[in-house]
Design goal:
This protein is α+β, with helices and mostly antiparallel strands. It has two domains: 2-166 and 201-234, Alpha-Beta Complex (endopeptidase fold (from Nostoc punctiforme)), CATH 3.90.1720; 249-373. It contains 14 helices and ten strands. Strand 2 (41-48) and strand 3 (53-61) form a beta hairpin. Helix 9 (249-266) packs parallel to helix 14, helix 10 packs antiparallel against helix 12 (314-321) and helix 13 packs antiparallel against helix 14 (355-373). The N and C termini lie far apart (78 Å). Residues 244-371 form the Lnb-like transmembrane domain.
Amino acid sequence: MKKFIFFLLLSVQVFGQLGPQSSISLITVAPGKELYSRFGHSMILIQDPENGIDKAYSYGTFDFNTDNFYWKFLKGTLPYTISANQFQDVVYFYSNYEHRTMVAQKLDLNLVQRNEIFQRLETNLLPQNKEYQYKFFYDNCSSRIRDVFEKQQGIRVPWGQIDSLQSLSYRQWMNKYLPYNTWVTFGMNLALGYRSDVKASASQSTYLPDNLYYAFNFAKNGNAPLVKEIVPIYEEKDTLLGKINPMGPIIVLFLVSLFVLFVSIKQFKFQFTLDKILFTVYGLFAWLIFFLATGTDHEVMSWNASCLMLLPTNFPLVFWFANSKKKDIWAVYLKYAFIVSAIGLIIASYYFAGLFLVGLPVLIRTYALWIQKK
């Protein structure tokens, strides 16, 4: 108890106290055009005119100058931090550079609660506390803010009553924010494993800022609503309407599948050259998926059926089975390779239908080679 009182006195001395006119708001920023901004953003705004405080606290900040940045990003070990900026700078950035709608939910908190949240955020900003291991589905800019308020005494979110946030998996929520026929969308779904297909609870779905915004409208502080006022800060006309993409994966992969099927039926002499190209490209992607599933800290990429669908063993074995004269040996391999790829394709396309077209060329060619070597 004495340690707690000492810490409380120390925090008051270091960070100061908010005045009676202070306020706290949840700021929600609409999705942007770039991939990193596609899912929106959340911030906590603390304003106190008496003490000249007008700060927006944001989780999910990272530094491009971090040593081995790309390797750490790939491995899932890149440190993320909390940051704080003057709110007028934040508004200027999102309105003039990113052109993204911003809205504030002003929260009905008493002075003690406001100060406790303020002290918690300022303590979190200290160099020894600011870093954390970011997890897109589990621990991000939105979920961290959810946790800040859920830990605050008096605040309660009736998660069981928010039915509209309880029906989708993590992957399904993610895909609501991605245009379907893009290589990025197909690539992200190709990399995700079984854990992304677990049904998210209402609380877990608030890894998305829009869902956190929605949930806060149900939240209570004691017996009163937590949100006392919703204030638009900046409004941008929606520019994220989908467009037909003739070079998108659906058309391209469909044409590739037709070409592979045509070559397999006609049995052109260059079919074995095609095999080496096709299975090399797909095999390298399969090994990458295998690495992401087993060699990184990205839990949601583990147990990935796409790895079975593309089958890493096809590369480098394609340089032997494509035109080997030992038909019996490779017929057995190709038989089981076809079965494994078919199982992987069925599972993967069940969770994201577009992956059927990704795996189809490999499945067609594996079957054709098996039949030829029987």
